[in-house]
Structure formats: C-alpha cells, structure tokens
Amino acid sequence: MIAVDLGGTKLAAGLVGRDGAVSRRAVEPTELTSSEAVLAQLERVIGAVGDGDFAALGAGIPSGIDQRFGRVVSSVNIPLAGVDLRDRLEARFGVPVWIENDANAAAVAEHRFGAARGARHVVMLTLGTGVGGGLILDDRLYRGAVGSAGELGHITLDLDGPPCQGACPGRGHLEVLASGGAADRLADRAVAERPGGDLGRAAAAGRVVDPHLLVELASAGSGDALDVIEHVGFLLGVGISDLVNVFNPELVVVGGGFAEAGDLLLEPARKVVAERSLRPAADVVEIVEAALGPDAGLVGAGLLAFDTLDGG
Ligand SMILES: [Zn+2]
User: Fold this and answer.
1) Separation of alpha carbons 161 and 167, rounded Å
2) Which of 162, 171, 207, 292 yields a CA-CA distance of 20 to 30 A from 50?
3) How far is ligand 1, taken at its centre, from the CA of residue 160, in Å?
4) Confidence tier at 50 by pLDDT (50, 70, 90)
5) CA 69 to ligand 1 center in whole angstroms
6) Quick one: how far is CA 159 from the chain centroid?
7) Which has the closest alpha carbon to 62: 20, 125, 5, 15?
8) What is the Å distance from ligand 1's center to 127 Cα?
9) 182-204 as b/e, with b when 16 or more CB fall inside 10 Å?
C-alpha cells in the first residue's frame, strides 16, 4: 500500500505493509509555492515510489478535511484549501484513495502498532510547530459529523491569549501556547531577556534556538532551558486536563517533534492533570510518549488505505 505524509516542511512517501513496516521511502522538502506545485510534487513522488503497482493510496494531510467530498477545506501550512484531493488522486492513479488529517493518521498508527496498542480510549496530541490531535474512542478513530473532529490543538486555554497560528481565527489556543512553536518563542524571549543565560550564550555562539536545542540544554541541566520546557509542559497539562474530563481516556499519547523532550515535558503535564482533572478519570489516565516517531503519520495513512480496500 502506498502512503504519503504531507507536512508543511517535508513530504514523505513509502510503501506500508499490513504490519506497519515502511519500505521504499522517499522524503523531499514540500513545494509550497502554489497549490498546483504541491499537487504536482505529490503525484510525482507517489508515481515514483509506487512504480505503477499499488492497490490503494492513503494520504495524511495537515488540514481540515470534509470526508463527504474528500475535500481539503482549511489548510494552515500548505496551499491546498478547496482542493478535491481524493477525487483528483483517484482520477490520476485509478485506485481507491483515502485522505486523512495527519494527526488522525498518527493516532491510528500509534493505536495499532505503537504506544496505544491495546487501549480502547486514546487521546493523541502531536507537538510540532503546531499541535495536532486525534481521538480513538471505543477502539475506533472518531471523525465527527464530516471528518474534522479531533482538532485538539484548538481548544482555548486563555480567553485573551495571543492570536492562534496560521489561518485559525481563535485566541489563546493550546497550539499557540503549548507547541514546539510556542517553546521557540519562549526561548527567543529568554535569549533577549537573559543574554548571559545558557540559551543566550548558545545563541551568541551561533546555535539555532529551537526545541531541539532546548531539549539538549535541559537534558544537560540548564535551568534556563528547563524553565521553558516546564512552562510549556504545564500549559500542555492544562489542556490535557480538559481532554481527560471530556473523554476519560486510558491513554494520552504525545508525539511529534517536540515529544523528544520526553519526561522533561510530560512530568509537569502529569502533575497538572493529577491536580486539576476530575476523578475517577484522573486516576486512570496515563500520559506517555509516542512510540513510532516521525513515521506515525505515514504508517497511519498506509493503514487507512488498507481499511479502504477492506471496506473499513
Ligand atoms: Zn487555533
């Protein structure tokens, strides 16, 4: 089965087996200049990796999708809003196509082969530049009325908070306060306010101040970097405590690039959830790091392509 994971920075494609194994992989920087450019790239990469021989196609897209029409309705980081992507890819390749929000696809992969294996009620959050979300409820991906459920990055933490990222009209959302992008902004502020601190000195030495540097410095004991990660972890925990109250999940799985912070990020979140969520939901929930790393979206897209063939 061929799968693609289209992100705002890179496009990954590969063959995905029923066991979730990925082979014949291709990764390229995403062509963001226009809708036609990204579609042309998508079709070229699928054609090359699939080599004319595949039974179905699954695509993970960082977008709001209307599954009634297989249409990308809103898209913050890639120029695909308004594109009838499912029909277009089906016409181009002549096979069944399933398109899915990328965090939903990641949730499916973690549920079947990753950290959430065996769990029936799972909240998945992917922390990158933004925050993606996916819900496994009663053992199935929950899609809502038309397929756009699970935008968990866009719950409100602060009514008067900063405007949300990209095309989101909200303010003070989880995504703008507790993502890798938020950590970036806090780190930049620390550099500006304390040039003699660990982050300030790393920046002066030419290091790129990003979540990766934060994790590296915090792991080595930097209080400056740890403060930023713990603050983001606290806000993440506030968001998760709401999700625990609403969904009573067994597991909250945290993936995406910033999940590399591991317990530095998750321990403050666990503490908030223990303090603020209602019992008994708070007693049973576990908050864990995702297991499949950056492949989760790709694997999930492939598994959903199998589901399409199987009539699922
Ligand atoms: Zn938002």
Assistant:
1) 16
2) 292
3) 13
4) confident
5) 24
6) 24
7) 5
8) 14
9) bbbebbeebbeeeeebbbbbbbe
Tokens coding 117: 């294996």
pLDDT tens by residue, 142-155: 999 999 999 999 99
Residue 124 Cα to ligand 1 middle (Å) = 17
* CA 190–ligand 1 middle distance (angstroms): 24
Report which of 174, 205, 173, 201 is spatially closest to residue 187, judged by C-alpha positions: 201
Stretch 246-265: mean pLDDT, rounded?
96
Is residue 201 predicted with pLDDT exceeding 90?
yes
Calpha distance 149→144 (Å, rounded) = 5
Helices marked H in 80-179: 85-93, 102-113, 174-177
Question: Could you give the CA distance from residue 23 to residue 13 in angstroms, rounded to a whole number?
Answer: 9
**3-state class percentages of the chain: helix first, strand second, coil last, to nearest 5:** 45, 20, 35
Whether the full predicted model's pTM is greater than 0.70, yes or no, is yes
Sign of CA dihedral 270, 275, 278, 279: positive
180 CA from centroid of ligand 1 (Å)? 14
